[in-house]
């Protein structure tokens, strides 16, 4: 039950102050512990409050201050609160107890084992997208839907609710195609190549990508070393109308905003259950206006999907739920036993992409083959290739330079092509013994690249010098660490020393 | 996997600054976004960091600032971080990425349905008590153990772990008795009367109580209007040695500190499952050195326990788990259909307690009867009364003034008896129609008392003027709201107006 007075009493006011406080997603307001609002409203530290300015409302967490850092009549706002409330310094702000959220009773019912129907799911996702849930509520909802996994009806309802709370794009084409990898495999940067092939074949592929969440590089991070990616919706439309496709960052468009909030909590908990994954992937594709999707599910002992059976089950759920939204989906279970290509990190992966597009002799053939496989499946799914011939068509479009030419035009349309940076400091990790490479730990490779500075340092990451099955001599480089500063290089090398089995060699 | 470099590199240092920032339980550190530590460690907002000073370590959440509120070489600490780190202004503080917590893998396993053994539970509770879990982790653990309720073995393991992480008291007596109500019933302030009766009968009853969590008054809040309650362990021992019992606040002694952390999250989620409740109640009793416990379980439509069957099941679990720790427990299912006594709020309940102890003619008889019932059960459980005669003995000790005399001595020993305050402003809520009182909503009554200012304003709360079954005339007072300021009175009256069915009258 809310303690907020139900009457129409005006809520007590303070003056807005911008604090320059970075709190990630959470809107925070700082007030003097002895200010008149805290006293009259009976507010204590960490209370959830409702901030109002004009007709805007923001749920925020209250922190209190003693001392003179802020004045008695000030409400000092974190950057997130400032952005959402859209005020100017000194503007009056109302502060009161946040009302109770009806949707939390559905979360409680779900904890105790009741299935949620579509209206309940919509109410939850609506409150989540509006920033009304605290971390505690979010974690409870996600945990409850992991402890008793979402069934198909709940997954459909969650997907629909996640689509409904965000923007939704529409395109003037019968076939709008997308390609997505569920991740977990370092260097798996096929998207720029696939989009170049598909658009070169005349398909519409308005691709929005995310930045890295837990990986050393997201497609948007890599693309940013090749062209501007932070296009707004109007700019994105111009690129797609001109070239049939784009490769932009999805952050400027608000597609499935609840998903970004859920992902943040899932990352902390390191839980990523099927229902959430399906709703997360499909809600973004549906909101982006796609009606054909090819999904890459890498399977391997250190990938996200660990077994063929788990991959098949996930593929079935993805395809079935997609069909409920009129989206034709095709899932490809791919080899997830080792990183793809040579580079791991934004710029290093961009160099691999360029080598494939330009048909260079040292281009990583595994990346090329994967891109053709996925592009081929997409061409077949979209009806642009006869079944069984898609990969061959994709390979031809790549080989004759049409894909490379289209890729350059897309980059120019997005604001101009760039040359990816190269790292200032590099150091090899050497084989401690001679033998055959029998295992490459994807997770440790990703961590190593992150310690070297990826994705924030665009040039940082690593270059793999050996692959599964290779015979190596003692002292031969297994990989090279790339960093922008010697301090970051040292961190990464320390980690590599502490994890000698990152690349396992059998005599 | 932690991103913390594993090597022995010294962690970068900043100067400690006390910010006067109140964040409830959470240790927070504020640093400049562009300080050398954030840059070299790659720290972003809301990162979990490990703060070190001397041999002390504190897990904290990082918030970042732009601008000149703090200097580049400062780490500005919240009050909680300042207290835990125990530093002086300007002291050097180390800051680095917090290491990964091994116990979280057990939380993940529990989410996915695996039972936890005693070592896993101990590791979780150890990390919780040390402040290493964020709200996200805490909510996930509590949700997982609600979605699939704790079994008896897990409840025992959790109870043991919660006892082990805190202080543990020992007393030089064969029988140490305690009394506890699981709450949910406003005005149910029997403890001071029960302790007075038991100690007057020669039993040892070293009672520690909590302050209000969600209710308008905890026993410690009420007792504080009658005597000092914030005694440290040495002072508490002196009182118990002199008088055989005490009535102090448990906060100065660290009994089951993990419980306080769990309760905070349970309150936000409004989940309170059997296993957690049993571990919460019993861990505090065991840690306090009690070996006999009488438990009051009020049952009623708006009480915490809603049905006789649920009460019986909870009683069985409490008794069985208590036995595993050598504690004899007796549970009494009591009438939870309406508030107890007349006053609701710290001082108002204290006046009720005084009236019963002093045998005043207008003393609330329901409070007196409940206290005698519980004290009688305790006397029988402890072997100080023949079964069937306990309540009579309790009544006699109350009637002849021995309990009142003992109560005064305990208050004097704790630092001197006080007179509870009386409220400055009062206003009655009147019956809108004539008829019979058929329902009193415990939850709404509690909320009304809190809106009037309880428990922070000691004199605030309400006085019930009608009870279930009473015939009332139109315009007759049903209850009186007591407040310390007219603003708080207005809030409470607004709420009462909006909830006319708080006390239901049938014509």
Mind sketching the topology for me?
The structure is a homodimer of 507-residue chains.
Chain A: E1 13-22, E2 28-32, H1 36-41, E3 48-53, E4 56-65, E5 74-78, H2 79-85, E6 92-97, H3 103-111, H4 118-129, H5 135-147, H6 152-164, E7 177-181, H7 191-200, E8 205-209, H8 219-224, H9 233-243, E9 245-249, H10 257-269, H11 274-287, E10 292-299, H12 308-324, E11 328-335, E12 343-344, H13 346-357, H14 365-381, H15 390-399, H16 402-413, E13 425-430, E14 435-440, H17 442-451, E15 461-464, E16 471-472, E17 477-483, H18 486-498, E18 503-506
Parallel strand pairs in A: 1-5, 2-4, 7-10, 8-9, 10-11
Antiparallel strand pairs in A: 1-6, 2-5, 3-4, 3-6, 12-15, 13-17, 14-16, 14-18, 15-17
Helix pairs in contact in A: 3-4, 3-5, 4-6, 4-10, 5-10, 6-11, 7-14, 7-16, 9-16, 11-12, 14-15, 17-18
Percent of residues in helices of chain A: 40-55%
Q: Which secondary-structure class do the elements of chain A indicate? A: alpha/beta
The number of domains of chain A = 4
CATH class of the largest domain in chain A: Alpha Beta
Instruction: Tell how many strands the DSSP assignment of chain A holds.
Output: 18
Number of helices of chain A: 18
Low-confidence stretches of chain A: 1-9
CATH architecture of the largest domain in chain A: 3-Layer(aba) Sandwich
Q: Radius of gyration of chain A over alpha carbons?
A: 25 Å
**Named CATH topology of the largest domain in chain A:** Pyrimidine Nucleoside Phosphorylase, Chain A, domain 2
Mean pLDDT of chain A: 93
Most extensive interface? A-B, 67 and 68 residues
**Separation of the first and last Cα atoms of chain A:** 67 Å
Which homologous superfamily in CATH is the superfamily of the largest domain in chain A?
A: Nucleoside phosphorylase/phosphoribosyltransferase catalytic domain
- What is the oligomer described by this structure? homodimer
Q: Beta-strand percentage of chain A?
A: 15-25%
Q: Please list the strands of the largest sheet of chain A in the order they lie side by side.
A: 1-5-2-4-3-6
The biggest sheet of chain A amounts to:
6 strands, mixed, barrel
The coarse overall form of chain A would be: globular
EC number (chains A, B): 2.4.2.4
InterPro entries (chains A, B): Glycosyl_Trfase_fam3, Glycosyl_Trfase_fam3_N_dom, Glycosyl_Trfase_fam3_N_dom_sf, Nuc_phospho_transferase, PYNP-like_C_sf, PYNP_C, Pyrmidine_PPase_CS, Thym_Pase_Put
Pfam family, one (chains A, B): Glycos_trans_3N
Protein name (chains A, B): Putative thymidine phosphorylase
């Amino acid at each position: 039950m809310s303690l907020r007075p139900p009457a129409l009493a005006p809520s007590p006011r303070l003056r807005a102050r911008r604090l320059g406080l970075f709190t990630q997603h959470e809107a925070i307001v700082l007030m003097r512990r002895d200010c008149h609002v805290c006293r009259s409203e009976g507010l204590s530290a960490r209370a959830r409050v409702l901030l109002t300015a004009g007709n805007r409302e923001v749920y925020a967490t209250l922190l209190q201050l003693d001392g003179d850092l802020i004045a008695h009549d000030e409400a000092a706002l974190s950057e997130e609160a400032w952005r959402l409330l859209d005020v100017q310094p000194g503007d009056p702000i109302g502060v009161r107890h946040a009302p109770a959220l009806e949707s939390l009773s559905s979360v409680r019912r779900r904890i105790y084992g009741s299935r949620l129907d579509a209206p309940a799911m919509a109410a939850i996702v609506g409150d989540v997208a509006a920033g009304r849930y605290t971390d505690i509520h979010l974690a409870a909802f996600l945990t409850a839907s992991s402890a008793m996994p979402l069934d198909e009806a709940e997954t459909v309802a969650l997907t629909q609710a996640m689509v409904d709370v965000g923007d939704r794009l529409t395109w003037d084409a019968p076939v709008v195609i997308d390609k997505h990898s569920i991740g977990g495999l370092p260097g798996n940067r096929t998207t720029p190549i696939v989009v170049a092939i598909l658009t070169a074949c005349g398909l519409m592929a308005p691709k929005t990508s995310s930045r890295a969440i837990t990986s050393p590089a997201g497609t948007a991070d890599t693309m940013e070393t090749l062209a501007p990616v932070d296009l707004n919706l109007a700019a994105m439309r111009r690129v797609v109308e001109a070239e049939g496709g784009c490769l932009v960052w999805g952050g400027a468009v608000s597609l499935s905003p609840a998903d970004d909030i859920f992902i943040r909590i899932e990352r902390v908990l390191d839980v990523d259950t099927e229902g959430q994954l399906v709703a997360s992937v499909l809600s973004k594709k549906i909101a982006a206006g796609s009606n054909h999707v090819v999904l890459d599910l890498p399977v391997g002992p250190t990938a996200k999907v660990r077994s063929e059976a788990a991959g098949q089950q996930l593929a079935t759920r993805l395809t079935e739920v997609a069909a409920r939204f009129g989206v034709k989906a095709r899932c490809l279970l791919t080899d997830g036993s080792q990183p793809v290509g040579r580079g791991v990190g934004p710029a290093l992966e961009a160099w691999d992409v360029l080598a494939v597009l330009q048909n260079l002799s040292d281009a990583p053939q595994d990346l090329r083959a994967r891109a053709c496989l996925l592009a081929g499946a997409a061409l077949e799914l979209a009806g642009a290739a006869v079944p069984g011939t898609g990969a061959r068509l994709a390979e031809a479009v790549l080989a004759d330079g049409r894909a490379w030419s289209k890729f350059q035009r897309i980059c120019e349309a997005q604001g101009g092509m760039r040359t990816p940076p190269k790292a200032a400091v590099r150091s090899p990790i050497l084989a401690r013994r001679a033998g055959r490479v029998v295992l490459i730990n994807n997770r440790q490779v990703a961590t190593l690249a992150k310690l070297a500075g990826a994705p924030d340092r665009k040039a940082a990451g690593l270059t793999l010098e050996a692959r599964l099955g290779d015979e190596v001599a003692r002292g031969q480089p297994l990989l090279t660490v790339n960093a922008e500063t010697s301090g970051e290089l040292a961190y990464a090398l320390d980690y590599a020393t502490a994890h000698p089995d990152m690349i396992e060699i059998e005599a």
